[in-house]
Amino acid sequence: MVDSTLVKKTAEVVAMTSRVLLDALVPLIEDLSSQMPETERYRRLLHTLRALFPSDATALLRLDGDTLVPLAIDGLSSDTLGRRFRVSEHPRFARILAREGPTRFSASSDLPDPYDGLVKGVSGHLEVHDCLGCPLVINGRAWGLLTLDALDPARFDGIDMASLQAFLSLAAATVSVAERIDTLARTSEAERQRAEVYRQASGPRRREMIGSSGPHNRLQEEIAIVASSDLTVLVTGETGVGKELVASEIHALSPRADKPLISLNCAALPDTLVESELFGHVRGAFSGASSDRRGKFELADGGTLFLDEVGELPLPVQAKLLRVLQNGQLQRIGSDSEHKVDVRLIAATNRDLAEEVREGRFRADFYHRLSVYPLVVPPLRERGRDVLLLAGYFLEENRSRLGLLSLRLSADAQAALLAYRWPGNVRELEHLIGRSALKALAAHRERPRILTLTAADLTLSGDTAPATAPAAAPPLPAPGADFRETVTAYERTLILDALTRHNQNWASAARELGMDRANLNRLARRLGLK
Fold first, then answer.
1. Residue 392's domain is classified under what CATH number?
2. How far apart are CA 469 and CA 498, in angstroms?
3. CB-based contact 417:391 (threshold 8 Å)
4. Which end of the chain is more exposed for a tag (fewer CB within 10 A), N or C?
5. Out of 12-21, 65-74, 404-413, least confident range
6. Which residues contact 360 (CB under 8 A, 6 or more apart)?
7. pTM listed for this prediction
8. Are residues 161 and 27 in the same domain?
């Protein structure tokens, strides 16, 4: 009687467990045949995971080479989505990927936890807890993994591995469907192959365009539209928004992805060298031309040429560029022969070129030839919570560089980042995270395992003066001071202050000071600043 009763109760428990599992999985099965955004599909997957296997934090990560990219999170801080975890630097992830089935880490495991400092509701070090990781295998290869973390170290003691395995099979199907839909959404198989060729050729050094805000997504859509064409693109936006990253993305998605992307910063060269850099020269063309040299156009033949700060080009060079863009013919300096090139041009500027045309500082015909397809990169202050995703990316970069177990943001630091206006945009955020991490680390006598950046570490003010704010009036010189020395000192101060406001960009500083760039260069040399 006892044995039959036990068997009956066991059967009831199994049946109940099966019903709970089935009730939870049915919506996911129905989702497989539904059209929905990838982010929503993955959000539902993690929601079901936490319902079946109660935990405090879950995450879905895709394996990209040696890097795990978070696609969806639940219970982890927002900046986690912007982080990129190198498997070689995180032994727990490496162990999960090395096994076929789920891996549970003992509460006493001394392996560092990659989520230390990222679990919501935990302000200090992530104490002893329960940790479970499951690899996702699709078509015989490791696609990524799912992780579950619970603050209770015994939370997963009674977990039903059969139910977990069933969920993992459905999770793999969900991921597979999401990827298939994404593939079918591409305009052609050729585009997909070109993107893959670029991804393999560029390797891990290529930076992603990270973000999920409306303005960021609209920019991505515009990039996808123009990338498949050969149209000339004019990328505009404030300093530091990532215009060079947009150019790189256009090239990566273009039919020229397996050809070179050559860049030239037009503001970084003296006027006398711009033409040589663009078109090349022959031996003896000018003093110092000791051999023939190909220019950027020839180096980019078949690929893409990116002209950054194109608004700084001298008017004579603009005329010669216009001819190359119209017929693809160029001449090296000092040569009578012509070279034919096939180059797709992408230009970028933070200047209002239409206004420059009206002021006579930019050729109207060249402007219209450049702006066949204009793209405006939104400033960071208009991208909402993207600032936290980008911060997460830069935090992980600095965590790896500084050799820390975890580098994170406190709640007040996150609030400060969201409230700040970001006059220097993404570049300012990158420099801020790197600088703040270094200073915060130096403030500790003993090297910490986890470093938390607070709002005080970031030293952000609520309001930011515009970059073109007028310089303060000079202090009155002391009685008897030499007039010429006083004027020279003030000139030096004006130039240095302008350069600081414009991140050492001499062309931008010249515009603020109302000077021609060549005149500013000559004055700087006379003052000993160059």
1. 1.10.8.60
2. 10
3. yes
4. N
5. 12-21
6. none
7. 0.72
8. yes
- Which residues have a Cβ under 8 Å from the Cβ of 349 and sit 6 or more positions away? 234, 235, 236, 309, 310, 311
- Residues 436, 386 share a domain: yes
**C-alpha angle 425-429-430 in degrees, rounded to nearest 5:** 120
For residue 297, pLDDT over 70 is answered with: yes
Distance CA 149, CA 167 (A): 17
Distance in angstroms (rounded) separating the CA atoms of residues 388 and 436? 15
Who's near 427: CB < 8 A, 6+ residues apart?
239, 240, 242, 503
Query: Are 330 and 399 contained in the same domain?
Result: no
* In a shared domain, residues 277 and 397: no
Is the CA virtual torsion 37, 43, 49, 51 positive or negative?
Answer: negative
Residue 391 has what DSSP assignment? Answer: H
Residue with the larger pLDDT of the pair 288 and 328: 328
Q: What pLDDT, on a 0 to 100 scale, did the predictor assign at position 365?
A: 93
58: three-class secondary structure by DSSP: strand
Could you give the CA distance from residue 492 to residue 489 in angstroms, rounded to a whole number?
5
* 8 Å CB contact between 407 and 454: no
User: Are the C-beta atoms of 70 and 61 separated by less than 8 Å?
Assistant: yes
Q: Which residue would you say has higher pLDDT here, 523 or 477?
A: 523
pLDDT per residue as tens digits for the range 173-224: 777 776 776 565 554 444 544 444 444 444 445 678 999 999 999 999 999 9
Q: Where are the alpha helices (DSSP H) in 102-252?
A: 161-184, 189-202, 214-227, 243-252
> Which of 419, 441, 458 is the C-terminal boundary of a domain?
458
Dist CA 442 CA 437 (whole Å): 9
| Weakest mean pLDDT among 85-94, 187-196, 458-467 | 187-196
Q: Is 192 exposed, middle or buried (CB count within 10 Å of its CB: 0-12, 13-18, 19+)?
A: middle
Distance CA 377, CA 151 (A): 42
| 427 closest CA partner among 278, 300, 308 | 308
On whether the CB atoms of residues 134 and 164 are closer than 8 A, the answer is: yes
Inside any domain, residue 192? no
Q: Tell me how many degrees the CA angle 93-95-97 measures, rounded to the nearest 5.
A: 70
Residue type, 129: H
Residue 247, domain extent: 202-376
Find the range with the poorest average confidence among 60-69, 96-105, 292-301, 339-348.
292-301
Query: 3-state DSSP helix/strand/coil percent for the chain, to nearest 5?
Result: 50, 15, 35
358 lies in the same domain as 399: no
Is position 197 within any domain? no
Helices and strands per DSSP (H, E), number in the chain = 19, 17
The size of the chain, in residues, is 530
